[in-house]
Amino acid sequence: MQAVAEVITPTSLSEDMRTYLGRFDLAACVSCGSCASGCPSSGAPGFEDWNTRKVLRMLAMGMVDEVVNSDFVWLCTGCGRCSQNCPMGVDIAPLMMHMKHLRDRDKVPGSLHKGAQNNLESGNNLAISRDDYLEGMLDLGNELAEEECPGFYVPVDKQDAEVLFFPNSKEVYGDFEDQFWWWKIFYAARENWTVPSEGWEAVDWALFSGNYEGTRKLARRKIDFMKRLNIKQMIMPDCGGGSYGCRTGLKYCLEENSENEVDFIYLYEYLMRIMKEGRITLDKSVHAGKSFTWHDSCKHGRELYRHYGVAFFDEPRWILEQCVDDFVEMTPNRMNSYCCGAGGGMWPMPFDDQSAHHGRYKAEQIQRSGADVVVVACSNCRDQIMKRLPNYYPDYKYEVKYLWQVIAEALVIDPLQGEELRRAEDEAREQWKRLEVELTSEY
Ligand code: SF4
Ligand code: SF4
Ligand code: SF4
């Protein structure tokens, strides 16, 4: 029997949609398929009929609703390999994001929209109350002070602090002690740092769900907080998506008003700064006998470079050189690195098989490197590489560590004593009183 070709009639689009698509030269697309062959989501289970080239052709034909209603766009991690590979310069990754933006909010898959709403309404993705958050900060701070860092406390809403730091709700809610690594670094460096008492979330699920207005509001909140407390510099959130969303939100706010400018620094730059200034001392011997490799996160590398002209490739490698003796590269890396498969909110979305399919190249790369430890600097990458990929690709065993964990484990800590210790304890007492948090016996 002869196959009958489906006849597609180009759909007429709204003015808004035409204006939006007009920003991309879809007519330049030569249907070469480089985007699809470079996209790790191609061939994902359950989506065998979909690929990036098809999406581009559908959009060129005006089939926006069909694309928006497909879950294929939600498999896009925003890794940017397609855009990098397109010979005609079509920037496909933001187009995929815009298709997410156009989805009715009650049809956003999984918990992404709920998390973004929580963040906008309560100040964090998991709607952790202010009281629970502050009590956690007090108790955990005391635990670290007793264990290793006498006089340590978490400075909250500190006026005139040098740097602002954003906790990640996964750690505030459950992986409590994962916060100790950054805290120890701040302690060892004698940093004048702070966290907000409200609106502290590091992860931006508004970005992941294409909620541009949400991303703008989250950045606005950070700007207001810094100005109110006269904080000099913000360390961009560690989450690759969180920092990318923050950067994008700051750009939106700056476009509205030049007075919205605030100073920020990426975690790599901050860590290099305190190392180069000799503010922390490291003992590499704690990492002896293991080989380490580095995962280039797309949002701290390729995507940041493509949209903001900076990429953190050399910095993490330099930092690792100060901490470990045995480093091996994964290939390909840097601009050509593969995404782990968790970006764009894929970690909390209901697409485990597809996300693991996306991450298959990363699993292969790790195995080929022969490393014992994979070092990451994005909380989504970490969850994916540590928890999801080993479930699907169990043959090769490895550990996963944050870059700041590798540093914290090698720290030689000089504890506060005498007057310095008494001053820190007085400051802590004053702070918790001001925040109306009931003190435990340590104070
Ligand atoms: S950004 Fe990455 S995941 Fe998304 S379509 Fe492009 S290559 Fe695929
Ligand atoms: S890589 Fe570019 S030119 Fe080739 S099919 Fe994709 S969008 Fe079209
Ligand atoms: S999860 Fe990590 S590797 Fe994947 S897109 Fe995000 S930053 Fe890139």
From TrEMBL:
GO molecular-function terms, A-Z: 4 iron, 4 sulfur cluster binding; metal ion binding; oxidoreductase activity
Annotated 4Fe-4S ferredoxin-type domain residues: 20-50, 64-90
A Pfam family per the record: CCG
InterPro entries: 4Fe4S_Fe-S-bd, 4Fe4S_Fe_S_CS, Cys_rich_dom, Helical_ferredxn
Ranges that cross the membrane: none
Keyword Cell membrane: no
Annotated keywords: 4Fe-4S, Electron transport, Iron, Iron-sulfur, Metal-binding, Transport
Protein name: (Fe-S)-binding protein
